[in-house]
Amino acid sequence: MVNCENWENLMEEIKDANGGYHNFQLNVTGKILRFQMCYSSGHPIVCVDNRDKESIMESIHSYFLDFFGNSMQYYWREKDYADYFFPKLPDVSFCIDLHLSRHFSELEKLETFFSASPVFKWIRLNAEMTWKRFNPESKFYQAESLELYQLRPNFPATLRHFKGRQAIFKCAEWENSQYLIEFVNRWKSGDAFQKMEYLKFKLLNGEFPENRILNEIGAKYIDETEQPPKHVVPKVYDWRHCFTESNTDPITSHAYVVRQPDNRVASILIEEKTFSFGVWDKTEEEFLKLMD
């Protein structure tokens, strides 16, 4: 379990072993629990029996709430969908880090996993292959933050159905920029991606056709003599880089687009292998005043 102000890891859990050595015991909200200290990371590991896991986690979380209060954000992290456990705890967000090998063939099982799980705060998926599409209503697309790393892209379907706030996509190659053009134009129309704050695509090979994309999305431009503002937003969650920058990568660009229904602005930056899209909480008029 993790608390968030500075992404500090509070606790891990391991399965209990008969006759195992335990460093110390604590009375946690009326339940005697056994802990080991992880000296490499500096945080305790709770030793649990699967039969008691639910009640033990409830006790520990109650203790955290009593000690830290509701001012903290609490995260539950899993690394596998095959042997997972999501306790029913108040004020907890769920995150998962998945790796799919090139021989992965359990899409239905993975889809069932997402259907049975709460909506995730953050999903990171590293896939060595291209898989069949999830159901358009899958909770996979409802995650607040999504990171997808793939040799051959499934991005068109993922981007088309994504309903969250932040997404980062990395792939070895990109075959068609039309999907990015479609994304921006759907955002401009107000038909989709209302929650979107930040999007980043990064290619390992090839590059994005900057002029074509900017022309087909109807980009507007800040005067070249002006210094454009820098767009950053706090990351929803970042498991792997939890001790580094807590904000998204900055976007500083003269190019921007405007959403028709509410006149909101999004900055767009295309740099050969990278496409970045950042939504401002400002109308076009308010945005342009930032240069005054």
Q: Kindly state the percentage of residues in helix.
A: 10-25%
Strand order of the largest sheet: 2-1-7-8-9-10-11-12-18-17-16-13
Tell me about the biggest sheet? 12 strands, mixed
Mean pLDDT: 81
Secondary structure category: alpha/beta
Uncertain residue ranges: 1-11, 13-22
Distance between the termini: 45 Å
Beta-strand fraction estimate: 25-35%
Shape: globular
The string of secondary-structure elements, in order, is EEEEEEHEEHEEHEHEHEEEEEEH
Count up the helices.
Answer: 6
User: What is the number of domains?
Assistant: 2
Radius of gyration: 22 Å
Number of strands: 18
Protein name: F-box associated domain-containing protein
Organism: Caenorhabditis nigoni
Detailed description of the structure:
It comes from Caenorhabditis nigoni. This is F-box associated domain-containing protein. The chain is α/β, with parallel strands linked by helices. It folds into 2 domains: 1-71, no CATH class; 77-289. The chain is built from 6 helices and 18 strands. β16 and β17 form a beta hairpin. It starts with a strand and ends with a helix.
